[in-house]
Amino acid sequence: MRLRVDLANPYDIDIGENVIEELNTYLKEFYPNSKILVISDDYLYKIHGEKLEKELHRFTFNKYILKNGEKSKSTGNLVDILEFAAENEYRRSDLVIAFGGGVVGDISGLFSSLYLRGLDFIMVPTTFLSAIDSSVGGKTAVNLKAGKNLCGAFYQPKKVFIDTNFLKTLSDYYFKDGLGEAIKYGMIRDRSIFDEISKEKVTKSYKNLPSIIKKCLNIKKDLVKEDEKDYGIRQILNYGHTFAHAIEIKSNFKISHGHAVALGMKIMVKYFYEDFYHGFVKVLKKYDLDYDIDFDTEEIIKICKVDKKSREDKINIIIVKKLGTCEILKIDFNDLRKIYENR
Ligand code: GLY
């Protein structure tokens, strides 16, 4: 199945089993003379690198392999990839392939936006989380010491290939990372996603997984079309994320993004949608997404202050009071403190 992200420079997302096998044909048609730079991570590349390289048959390519994990999304690695591209004489007509999860996608996208002021890049997300979120919409970034994604750019890919076979080799923990984000889409826009996850047992081999991915991406692409640069409505994609980013950092990234989003949403539900709290936590527990956290309030709020939805002494938060709908609310940091302390 195919979805189109309808921006000034539109692009397609192909979703399904074995869509990676269309890559070679795509490259021959659109980038016949390009040299390719594959950016990936060591864990993933060991498992699936061969499958990708088969599609690069007859193309000249180099690979830059990062260490798996959020810590690789660093300014240091960004500079190293830039130097690597220059040493290997990449030109503006060449192409970057981001092959991996969110870390690989985010740093590859930012690199592509910077190198020679812009190289084309395509995304091949290999995790559930990156398939339904970071591979689409053009947010690219690396982390700074003060917070996640603080150095970045909006830079859209030329094409996204979501091969659902890659998701089958995810560990349960990282599959559930994606469920955290899928639950978010259900909460903010489409309760059928939440209902399905809550009623069924959604696993890596769940037959309807491609349809859940499609529903999530339909929401995302519409929001990106309406507000590409995240000044307004796109911010609703950040439901639960203000606390989530702080939780990730305070856990030294032991709690990964989707799990932290689940905990961030739990805090928001407890404060703004109390009637639903019990039902919400039941779903989190079903997927091992519920943990007790005890990070110091002031340290959490300090991190929240550099959130990208923060302006002067206020911050936009996303609230859900009815399943499948949400609103943006501007509050001050004292109120944010109260919400965290109420958890
Ligand atoms: N991950 C949220 C967004 O793309 O806006």
UniProtKB/TrEMBL annotation:
Alphabetical list of CDD domains matching this protein: DHQS
EC code: 4.2.3.4
Main enzyme class: lyase
GO biological process: aromatic amino acid family biosynthetic process; chorismate biosynthetic process
InterPro entries tied to this protein: Dehydroquinate_synthase, DHQ_synth_AroB, DHQ_synth_fam, DHQS/DOIS_N, DHQS_C
Gene3D superfamilies: 3.40.50.1970, Dehydroquinate synthase-like - alpha domain (1.20.1090.10)
GO cellular component: cytoplasm
Keyword NAD: yes
Domain 3-dehydroquinate synthase C-terminal: 178-310
Cofactor names: Co(2+); Zn(2+); NAD(+)
Keyword Calcium set for record: no
The 3-dehydroquinate synthase N-terminal domain, residue ranges: 64-175
UniProt keyword list: Cobalt, Lyase, Metal-binding, NAD, Nucleotide-binding, Zinc
GO molecular function, one term: nucleotide binding
Name of the protein in its database record: 3-dehydroquinate synthase
Species of the source: Anaerococcus hydrogenalis ACS-025-V-Sch4
Gene name linked to the record: aroB
